[in-house]
Design a protein that fits this description.
With about 240 residues, the chain is mainly α. It has helices at about 5-20, 20-30, 30-35, 35-45, 55-75, 85-95, 100-125, 135-160, 165-175, 185-190, 200-230. It is about 75% helix and about 0% strand.
Length: about 240
């Protein structure tokens, strides 16, 4: 085979690999339409402001959210959101499912750590005055993310369907029901009736697995996009 033929053969192999490979799709056919390579390089080469370790809590919360998502998907293969299967499936995960105890512990403590990281992030923004113009809209988005994170903790607490989980849900939904005007209607919506039952478990599961993750992903994209555009605020 001549050198020209070998060169042509290598070029054909590279073209085929770029066509069907992920890198070739992103930086080849897709890049010709969306300029993805330029945007990616501009993102990676943009300097990051050095604002101290206290600016890391938002990124830590995102990392813990991803751990929550990964372990939560694994736990979904074994969990049954109904009464009494919720408690039985929790016992099965803890004692019989391969590495079920491990992923359940990681999921549990990552959730607590995420709530802690988000709370510290909110306190940092308050103390440094980063909620002021032009970051006031991002402060609102971040506040929504704080309450969504609290929603993860509250809804996930009931899913094991233990006695303590039952009374915890009974207490805080009753607290919601004491709000004036629409509190009782919200409590009925959350519980699926007047009392905490298996229907409540199913509703909390839907919130915990579908509604809250979807809303959190949407608001996180908005939040990080605005952080990316405005940068990290300097101390007052």
């Amino acid at each position: 085979m001549s050198s020209r033929e070998r060169s042509h053969h290598k070029g054909s192999s590279r073209s085929t690999r770029d066509l069907f490979g992920l890198r070739g799709f992103l930086f080849g056919s897709a890049d010709s339409r969306a300029s993805m390579k330029g945007a990616w390089e501009a993102t990676l080469r943009r300097p990051v402001a050095h604002s101290g370790w206290s600016s890391c809590f938002g990124g830590i919360a995102l990392f813990l959210f991803l751990i929550q998502a990964a372990t939560g998907i694994l736990l979904m293969f074994f969990y049954i959101p109904a009464d009494p299967e919720a408690y039985r499936s929790t016992l099965y995960m803890a004692g019989q499912a391969p590495f079920g105890w491990f992923f359940r512990i990681i999921h549990h403590w990552a959730g607590i750590a995420m709530m802690f990281a988000v709370s510290l992030h909110v306190l940092r923004v308050l103390f440094k005055g980063a909620y002021q113009d032009p970051r006031d809209l991002n402060w609102i988005v971040g506040s929504v993310l704080f309450f969504l994170t609290a929603g993860f903790v509250l809804t996930g607490d009931l899913l094991p369907w233990t006695r303590s989980a039952y009374w915890s849900a009974e207490w805080w939904t009753s607290l919601v029901g004491s709000f004036p005007l629409i509190g009782h209607q919200i409590m009925l919506f959350l519980r699926g009736g007047e009392n905490v039952t298996g229907s409540t478990v199913t509703r909390f599961y839907v919130f915990h697995v579908f509604v809250l993750p979807a809303l959190s992903t949407l608001f996180m994209v908005l939040h990080f996009a605005m952080v990316r555009k405005l940068g990290i605020s300097e101390p007052l």
